[in-house]
Amino acid sequence: GAGVSQSPSNKVTEKGKDVELRCDPISGHTALYWYRQSLGQGLEFLIYFQGNSAPDKSGLPSDRFSAERTGGSVSTLTIQRTQQEDSAVYLCASSLVGFGTEAFFGQGTRLTVV
Amino acid sequence: KQEVTQIPAALSVPEGENLVLNCSFTDSAIYNLQWFRQDPGKGLTSLLLIQSSQREQTSGRLNASLDKSSGRSTLYIAASQPGDSATYLCAVGNNAGNMLTFGGGTRLMVKP
């Protein structure tokens, strides 16, 4: 595609429910990243995928968070048993080969947990 | 752990002014530095990417410089316009290429 696509753009969920956020990277980009941006906060690294290598999950805040990338393309970020503190904008980025090359971000998914 | 700081946090200028946004980082062992723009409620738009071996990059009215040894980068915006109003973020890429560490951003408002 022309750019990184994320869906949904907005998601409101009840506390305790599970949510899935989707990211379609730019075609041909082998690296994919998830970041979180909370209100008034900077961007927080969550997880990094590079090709077929094991993902770097060092930024995931708890075991309620998980992500997968199927076929080296589309990625899904899953948050189980959502909490109010999970409310944030979740941003996905892709780059040709790691952050040594230019990173392109999607528009984000705004998650609100009520 | 890499820490990135942006000063000022907010800036308001009249249209037409030239301005400089500052970014500093604590660990000079970086791979590259990237400047982004974020409009309210939107994602990030890449503006300029500077590799660690480079001193500056230019795109239109934007010029970004990098002084790796002192841990600093500046984004220069010439002849600012109201459409430049946004939050500007700098991000530092580590040598492993698997992490971008972001600063807190500078919120810029250009008044007509």
Write the layout of secondary structure elements.
The complex is a heterodimer of chains A (114) and B (112).
Chain A: E1 5-7, E2 10-13, E3 19-24, E4 31-37, E5 43-50, E6 65-69, E7 75-79, E8 88-95, E9 104-105, E10 109-113
Parallel strand pairs in A: 2-10
Antiparallel strand pairs in A: 1-3, 3-7, 4-5, 4-8, 6-7, 8-9, 8-10
Chain B: E1 4-7, E2 10-14, E3 19-25, E4 30-38, E5 44-51, E6 56-59, E7 62-67, E8 72-77, E9 86-94, E10 100-102, E11 106-111
Parallel strand pairs in B: 2-11
Antiparallel strand pairs in B: 1-3, 3-8, 4-5, 4-9, 6-7, 7-8, 9-10, 9-11
Describe this structure as you would to a colleague:
- The complex is a heterodimer of chains A (114) and B (112).
- Chain A is an all-beta fold.
- Chain A contains no helices and ten strands.
- In chain A, strands 2, 4, 5, 8, 9 and 10 form a six-stranded mixed sheet that branches.
- In chain A, a hairpin with a 5-residue loop joins β6 and β7 (75-79).
- The radius of gyration of chain A is 13 Å and the shape is globular.
- The termini of chain A are far apart.
- The relative contact order of chain A is 0.33.
- Chain B is an all-beta fold and 112 residues long.
- Chain B is built from no helices and eleven strands.
- In chain B, the strands form two sheets. In chain B, strands 2, 4, 5, 9, 10 and 11 form a six-stranded mixed sheet that branches. A five-stranded antiparallel sheet of chain B has the order 1-3-8-7-6, with no helix packed on it.
- In chain B, β4 and β5 form a beta hairpin.
- The model of chain B has no long low-confidence stretch (mean pLDDT 94).
- The interface between A and B is medium-sized, with 26 and 26 residues.
Notable features of this structure?
heterodimer; A: about 110 residues; six-stranded mixed β-sheet; globular; B: about 110 residues; mainly beta; five-stranded antiparallel β-sheet; 11 strands
